[in-house]
Structures are given as C-alpha cells and as structure tokens.
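May I ask for a sample protein chain and its fold as tokens?
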Amino acid sequence: MTETDTPILNARHLLGIEALSVGEITGLLDLAEEYVKLGRAPQKKLALLKGRTVINLFFEPSTRTQSSFELAGKRLGADTMNMSVRTSSVSKGETLVDTATTLNAMRPDILIVRHQDSGAAELLSRKLDCSVVNAGDGCHEHPTQALLDALTIRRRLGRLDGLTVAICGDIAHSRVARSNIHLLTKMGATVRLIAPKTLLPADAASFGCEIFTDMNKGVADVDIVMMLRLQMERMAGAFVPSAREYFRFWGLDRKKLALAKPHAFVMHPGPMNRGVEIDSAVADDIEVSLIQEQVEMGVAIRMAVLDALSRGLSGGSA
C-alpha cells in the first residue's frame, strides 16, 4: 500500500505535536486516508509490520486509545502485546526506569505508552532502543488524538486552514486540548478556548488562541465545537460549582450550538459525561456529531503512525 522507504516523520518517536512540522502532519493525515479506505474494505490486514513487535503499556485506563492502537498494530501484521500494569512489577513498586530496562530486554520495535505523569513518554524514549509513541502523558500531550481530530475535520470540511474551532471545557487538565492547539494553529486554523476561569491554564494567554469564559459568545460563528471531558480525577478542590451548574453555563446543548455557523459540527474525544459537558440529543445527532467518526479515524491515524515509524526501524523496511 505504501512506499516504506519514504520518510514521513523526521524523528524515531512521536512524543507530541509541538515538535512536528506542517509537512509531517500533512504526511500523516494523507497516509491515514489510505488506511481509512483499508478499514472499510473486506480484507483489512497487511503484512507491513510482519515480524515486528508492538507493546502497549498503559498506566492509565483507556478504551478507545488502547484498543485502536492494538487493532492498528494487528491490521499491519505486527505481533501486538498489551502489558497489564495492574498485574506487573510496577504495581509492586518498580520504577519507570526499571520498567524501561525490562522492556528493552524484550527488544520491542515500537512502544505505545500512556502515563499519568507529564514527560514519562519522553523519559522512556531516552532509555529504550525502540520507537516510542506518546498515547497521553499527564496534562502534557496526546498527539494521536489531535491527529485523528484533524483527519476527521479535514474529511468533513475539506481543509483546516481558515476554520474556527472552539475547544470547550476542562482545558487546564486536558492533554487533548494542548495537542489540538499545537496542531490547529500550525495548520492555519483559529482556535477559541472556552472555559470557566478555574479551568483555564494560568498561561493560556500565551497559547495564541482567543479566550472566552462565556460559552454563548465563544461558540458564535465557529465551524467546529470540540467539547472536553471534565477530568475530576486530576482535580484537587472545587473547580466547578456543581455538574448541573456547569452544564447550564458551559455544557453544549442545541440552544448553544445554534449560535455556531449553520452546519457546524460537534466533537468529543470521549468518554463523555452526558448531561455535564454535552447533551445526549447533540452527541447522538448524526447530522452534527462527528464523535463516532472520530473513533473510526483513530484506527486509521494510529496505523499511519505505526507505518511512518516503521520506516525508521533498524533492519530495513518492515
């Protein structure tokens, strides 16, 4: 399907969007388009990564990200393994560096890692001989989520440049927001951040985005409304008055969505807190909601990332 000796990524790892060029982002999106087609074909499996080993190491629970990386690896023909952290030595007090040493001895080709601490993926990339993909580290980045969001938007609207995208909700704790801000601004979109002051990062003014604390004003005339999950597990203290009050002011319902451009689309990285950040009537409306499409694009993007990284693996083409 692809020319495996043609580089798309200039680095051995995918640790964040911030370090990627416009050309690298475009290359990954274009490659993912081919894997969208493959995913819709009767025969979905290739031998591109035959003989390669991909390990999923998730220190935080995940459904969409872990399962789509697993499926991506298997569709490319890799030997894919999910490491259960709860039953591993990590749960017995082993350090991340000790884990890296153990993994290195297994000689994997690509490691997919999700960790609760910012910088964990970067640390592992310096300790391991294999390629490392950041599947979310603390409040830092979640690069493949931003890439799948960009692919979803580009397929529906034909472009990223010139669009206005509103990112709404718990921006302070969201690695999804940070990766999307990096990607969308690089690609020429205008990004609006909409949140109560308590859920805006202290340095939000330096992000190059328009900032709103009023949801009605923030969603006016936007092309995309991207809602974020309230990450209660990362909060220490009262950031919002109550779930009911939060939905009243910053949750997305049909009345607020009507302020956006006609035919504006709605996105959410999942999992959703229905009735808190988004109303079910909006989330389940196939005319405006791209949420299920995001899930499909997630497999295609992660196949593209594994393909792109495989081109730099030792031992020649995969």
Observations:
- DSSP finds eleven helices and nine strands in the chain.
- Strands lie at 53-58, 79-84, 110-115, 131-137, 164-168, 190-194, 210-212, 224-227, 265-267.
- The longest helix spans residues 291-310.
